[in-house]
Design brief:
Organism: Candidatus Eisenbergiella merdavium
Strand order of the largest sheet: 5-4-1-6-7-8
Largest sheet: 6 strands, parallel
GO molecular function, one term: phosphoglycolate phosphatase activity
Distance between the termini: 4 Å
Structural class: alpha/beta
Oligomer: single chain
Radius of gyration: 17 Å
Strand content: 15-25%
Pfam family, one: HAD_2
Order of helices and strands: EEHHHHEHEHEHEHEHE
Helix content: 40-55%
InterPro entries: HAD-like_hydrolase_sf, HAD-like_sf, HAD-SF_hydro_IA, HAD_2, HAD_sf, PGP-like_dom2
Number of helices: 9
Number of strands: 8
Keywords: Hydrolase
């Protein structure tokens, strides 16, 4: 039986695509750049806010280095105020988390969303202290797929790689788990598809949150 589960945040625990799309398009519009759909932003996300802005600018045909600095700064300001815009947990996530806690498993969040924003989203959706550990993008920890964040959680919990599951919705998440030497579970209710998950090392792919329980043995 596994002893701990590390979850990605965006596209795994919480449906945040509306907030990301809203903030991204508002930042782009302030510089006369075109807007994009939620489907587009599902391709832009996954490697942190800076990469999201870079991908959006490339899609908009804007390649000037100075444009990135301006749009990124604006996006961060807008997102700091609107990171909870239409954000909600995916159906079945809360019962899953409650069952994991009942089974005495430790639960953590590891996200490429900035640390303060990650903590705010998690606490507003699930309550302060519900998770044993919440970690977003920080300057002292390389972002995923670097496994440093996973190792930090392993150390905090005092557990070994074999005690963990890593759960996420993207290839970045699967690479993160594999780099840390832990079993990976890809989820299909998020932003990416089965093909991407399997190509990047998912040990298991599930369609509904309750299916995760069978992966604990």
């Amino acid at each position: 039986m596994k002893k701990a589960v590390i979850f990605d945040l965006d596209g795994t625990l919480a449906n945040t695509i509306a907030s990301i799309t809203y903030c991204g398009n508002l930042a782009l519009s302030r510089f006369g750049l075109p807007s994009f759909s939620e489907k587009d932003y599902k391709r832009f996300v996954g490697d942190g806010a800076a990469m999201l802005v870079r991908r959006a600018l490339l899609a908009a045909g804007e390649r000037k280095p100075e444009a990135f600095d301006r749009v990124y700064e604006t996006y961060r300001e807008i997102f700091a105020e609107n990171c909870m815009y239409q954000v909600k947990p995916y159906e079945g996530i809360v019962p899953l988390l409650e069952e994991l806690k009942q089974k005495k498993l430790r639960i953590a969040v590891l996200s490429n969303k900035p640390d303060a924003d990650s903590l705010r989203v998690v606490e507003e959706l699930f309550g302060k202290g519900f998770f044993d550990h919440v970690q977003g993008q920080r300057e002292d920890i390389p972002r995923k797929p670097d496994p440093a964040g996973v190792f930090r959680i392993m150390e905090a919990f005092g557990l070994d790689a074999g005690d963990f599951l890593y759960v996420g919705d993207s290839g970045v998440d699967m690479k993160t788990g594999k780099a840390a030497g832990i079993d990976t579970v890809g989820v299909l209710w998020g932003f990416r598809d089965r093909k991407e998950l399997l190509e990047n090392g998912a040990d298991t792919v599930i369609e509904k949150p309750e299916e995760l329980i069978a992966c604990l043995d």
